[in-house]
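During the reporting period the student researcher (J.K.) took over the structure-prediction task from the postdoctoral fellow and processed the backlog of single-chain submissions. One of the processed entries is reproduced below for the supervisory committee.
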Amino acid sequence: MNIVCIGGGPAGLYFALLMKRLSPGHDVTVVERNRPYDTFGWGVVFSDATMDNMRAWDAPTADAIQQAFNHWDDIELHFKGRAIRSGGHGFVGIGRKKLLNILQARCEELGVKLVFETEVDADTDFPRADLIIASDGINSRIRGRYADVFKPDIVTRPNRFIWLGTHKQYDAFTFLFEKTEHGWFQAHIYKFDDKTSTFIVECPEHVWKAHGLDRADQDQSIEFCERLFAGNLRGEKLMTNARHLRGSAWLNFQRIKCEQWSHFSGTAHVVLMGDAVHTAHFAIGSGTKLALEDAIELTSQFKQHGDTPQHIPEVLARYQAARAVDVVRLQNAAWNAMEWFEVCGERYCDQLEPEQFMYSMLTRSQRISHENLRMRDKGWLEGFERWFDAKAGLHEPLAVPPMFTPYNARSVTLKNRVVVSPMAQYCCVDGVPDEFHLVHLGSRALGGAGMVVAEMTCPSPDARITPGCPGLWNDTQARAWRRIVEFVHRESDAKIALQIGHAGAKGSTNEPWQGTGADQPLASGNWPLIAASAVPYLDDGGATPKAMDRADMDRVTADFVRAARYAAGSGFDWLELHCAHGYLLSSFISPLTNRRGDAYGGSLANRLRYPLEVFAAVRAVWPQQLPMSVRISAHDWVEGGITPDDAVQIAHAFKAAGADLIDCSSGQVSVHQKPIYGRMYQTPFADRIRNEVGIATIAVGAISEADHVNSIIAAGRADLCAVARPHLANPAWTLTEAAKIGFTAIDWPRQYRTAKPQMEANFQRERAAAIAITPGAAR
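J.K. obtained the following structure tokens:
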């Protein structure tokens, strides 16, 4: 094949040498606009795993890089006068110029043609090429030429950063945080040769402007950074090698991803590679990793399926299909890490103590979990756990994982941070919970959770979602609930909460397994619906609710108050008001469902007015010594709906009204929602509200293992974790997860204790076997 790589960065050079090595008969050329020894930026960093991958594909290149790189295991944080270090992370740093020179030399050794100081305007400059690799960087001309095919999605991020260097030597990947009168700056630092370290300074746009850095030239910017980090630099200077840039050299990161990676131009197949097709923020140091592994994957596909011109279409299709999954995973991790640094000054720097700040920073990408940290640096993690335990009032000789520390709210103490989330069971008759609910809630209370929450319970018959929903509007229901509460209190040390809510426009529907299915109206026996506005939940087939008038509001408020009194009389420990998921109180909050023109519609403050009235009335009759939480939809996932920014204001309002916690869910307000699912996908809402509003939160959604709970609680992203579906599958989920992670200092119900050592031993054998099979899995 005749192969041309446009752009002589890591992607183009490495692919060129791999393809030449795969088949020396290929005619491979790399065309670069700069001179052989020109380069911009300082050092690059990638993981031990990337080095292992490179060694498998071309050992001489890997050996040359290994001789030149700097390797370190430690990450060190300098924050609020403290220096904290954690090991076992495994990074490789090398000067960008040195890396390119190694790749250039290997290309020449294998017979790749290197052409320098040549501008390429279009792929048509190479009419004889069978395959053109557009590795021409973040501002790719080739991508721009075929933008309608590649469909790039380019997002410019708000933080400003400047890429500098210093001759001060650092023996760890180092992060510095400094506060000024206008806000926080951070520096990302790593050594890449025996004389030089990369020194990236980053800050939010408003802080950058407040210091006048938007008007500063490069020398003035360097002088500012030297003064800011003088305590750490200790007389060493900062340097730039970006004199080719006009102005201050402060940049904004651009996140790039493309829908299509390749295109047949009519004469040649053009494929994007490296930064031209996808970028990853330097917060996890993965831009070079992406480029090198792009080259490896495309070469692998040619090796597997044939490296002739006839095979190119199939190979390129397989390449994108195979590589896209890993790229999305890494870009998501990089996005999480990037967002952490973008908001840390507002959300974490002032709020968190150094120990927890370090933990939050280490787990910012969500790729590193609690148990992964234990494998990397057991001593550091156990020290952190002891610090966290002490904050929670524990002083045990052995460290207790964060999920098993107690939590206090008013007079109530939960034994741990696990909550059985309220989950609709749809099996009541006339709103009365029966033996099913006794077994359902009782078994989960015995299963180790700190608290179980009964499903949304309705304050009136017309407040139900379905005829099978529980209620609390009469004495019979109250007695039935009291029986369940008394069982939980007598037979377990768990607490039990009640969630109260009104279905609003989503009422009078089938149980999910009946008739035409969930959310569909009953075939008969319907009841009138009410909501903030006359907006049906379904686009077709659903009943239109009546827009509530003052009389309706007063009646519903009184119903909620009556239910709260009954809940207190039934002995519940905790009360939650349901203001989420498109139900009645949620319908007032969301602009998608509130079309009112009176004092209860329009602005967010107006839309919150009625839910806050209900909260105040309920809080007034709910015992003052008992906590009350509010569940909200922190994101409607629909354009024009509630956003995470709105959720912060909603949380502020309920905090001012006296709420103890915000239970942070999302969606289910509109059938047009487009949520972005994933592990712990709603936890960022809990994190933001907790740390920006200053109120305790409950995280919920795709939390399915102890590692998730420990990571969330330890990082200060939430105070409690509500676990739903895993508890449906396993009532003893909490006890099982404790055994999985080797935490044995947890009590079991006396009737079940004989099973405890067997389960713990089984999981211990599984852990030992996994370590024996994959001893390097920690990295």
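The committee noted the following: Confidence is low (pLDDT under 50) at residues 775-779.
J.K. will present the remaining backlog at the next meeting.
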